């Protein structure tokens, strides 16, 4: 049982690490700020989410698990809103209606 | 070990770049990243309480303060004020800095080997207070006078900032980053984050008696939430002459001092707690102290009262 | 061993900050450099605390508590310095350029 | 298992270090702030992994604080720059 959980945990964390890799590559290689914003949100939401899922398989207590999920939700919220705020600045004419 | 070496190199690279960056804004962003990395270092150094403080201050209030300052300075910077230093001065500064670094590194190498430690005394004060977190025990019992004086220093810094206000602006509302921003996403994020943040702040404060956390960390989070709410225009800024504001600012040190003086009667020394009620009295001190620190930190970021800029 | 490594890190940080403090002409950069020095000094405390691990703690709690108070006071000092700086530039602008306040 | 988590934390931290290059190169302030945001998220992930690898539960609290304040610096940046637009140049 614990072997299965460990394998699942390793898989999820590896996938999360891959998304961080992808996000960083996008941040470095994409040509303009809005593309890079796109890369950034992928890394934020999916990479951290997969890492959190991987760690949930090993969570010692419900409170720790709750904190992990809370961290993820907070980052989701920050990512979703802040990227929008930043996109307003990145595009001088403002968003298209 | 290789993790630590990599982290050290990363910290040093970010620090070097904070110094070397040409634009002030870049240096400020670098400094925020530096604070984040330092939180890592504190975790690695088995100092989670410090890591919490560094994370709360370094990635929150300090970043906000410096970014605000750099964006205001950019608009009013006269180019004449930026004469670059000569080569000789740079070389001399480099030599001096290298000497200081080498001296400190030598001291690190020469530290006495069975390292002197006050941990046993701190452990004794834990036993006397019934607290579970050694750092909180040190802050509130073993070296409580340092903590009391520190809170007074915070208030003095605030008085210093307020004294910078021109006479004509005194008593006006603090010009917080006003709600001129029409982008309602800001209001949304503040409305969601502030309640969560208050809960997290109270949680960090509350676990401080048994686990890493405590009044400074909790207060910093509360202050950040207050600042966030006022940046989004959710709460209107208060005039610094308001009586309730002054009361919140001073109630912490006042209660601390009162209980400290009561220690003469109850336990025979300044800031000594009677054995049976130590934990309760520490809690009675900590709650108002947390409120006062939070209010002071938020007002420190807000700066002196000034006219609304139209 | 970890403590020694981060002790070296702290030593270099103090040197870097000192260099920036002397060399940079802009006051805000000087404030940043000064905070860098502060970070280095705190880290030195952290290294000493880590070496003093005893009585079942991961580190000596007394220097750790000192660093916590130090961090908060350093923040207050930074805020005061920034406020002074903003007031100074505001006054200079009003005196020098035409006032549009 | 702890070794694996430790290595994963190191890997994510290395990605953070690469992301810092974007803060360095810019070119615009928006890029810098965005990259700083990625640095924060990566730092949070690395901290969570580190907490599990070394068995220090307090590091989760550190990550929680970082996640809570992740938006703060960006919001400060956005309000500061929208203020400078309002003030005019």
List the helices and strands and how they pair.
The complex is a heterotetramer of chains A (97), B (310), C (101) and D (89).
Chain A: H1 2-29, H2 33-56, H3 62-90
Chain B: H1 2-20, H2 24-44, H3 48-75, H4 87-110, H5 119-129, H6 134-142, H7 144-162, H8 184-207, H9 215-231, H10 243-267, H11 278-302
Helix pairs in contact in B: 1-2, 2-3, 3-9, 3-11, 5-6, 6-7, 7-10, 7-11, 8-9, 9-11, 10-11
Chain D: H1 2-25, H2 29-54, H3 58-87
Can you tell me about this structure?
With 97 residues, chain A is mainly α. Helices cover 84% and strands 0% of the residues of chain A. Chain A has three helices and no strands. Chain A is flat, with a radius of gyration of 16 Å. The termini of chain A are far apart. In chain B, helix 7 runs parallel beside helix 11. In chain B, 72% of the residues lie in helices and 0% in strands. Chain B folds into two domains: 74 residues; 191 residues, no CATH class. With 101 residues, chain C is mainly α. Chain C has three helices and no strands. Chain C has one domain: Helix Hairpins (Orthogonal Bundle), CATH 1.10.287. With 89 residues, chain D is mostly helical. Chain D has one domain: Helix Hairpins (Orthogonal Bundle). In chain D, 90% of the residues lie in helices and 0% in strands. The longest helix of chain D has 30 residues. The model of chain D has no long low-confidence stretch (mean pLDDT 80). Chains in contact: A-B, A-D, B-C, B-D. The interface between B and C is large, with 98 and 81 residues.
How large is the radius of gyration of chain B?
Answer: 22 Å
Task: Identify low-pLDDT runs of chain C.
Answer: none
User: What number is the mean pLDDT of chain B?
Assistant: 82
Spans where pLDDT lies below 50 across 5 or more residues of chain B: none
| Shape estimate of chain C | elongated
Average of per-residue pLDDT values of chain C: 86
CATH-assigned fold name of chain C: Helix Hairpins
H and E order of chain C: HHH
Number of domains of chain C: 1
Query: Main beta sheet of chain C: strand number and arrangement?
Result: none
Oligomer status: heterotetramer
Report the top-level CATH class of chain C: Mainly Alpha
The N- to C-terminal Cα distance of chain C equals 57 Å
Beta fraction of chain B: under 5%
- What series of H and E elements makes up the topology of chain B? HHHHHHHHHHH
Number of beta-strand segments of chain B: 0
Structural class based on helices, strands and sheet pairing of chain B: mainly alpha
Q: How many E-type strands of chain C?
A: 0
Helix content percent band of chain B: over 70%
From the 3D coordinates, which CATH architecture of chain C would you assign?
Orthogonal Bundle
Major β-sheet annotation of chain B: none
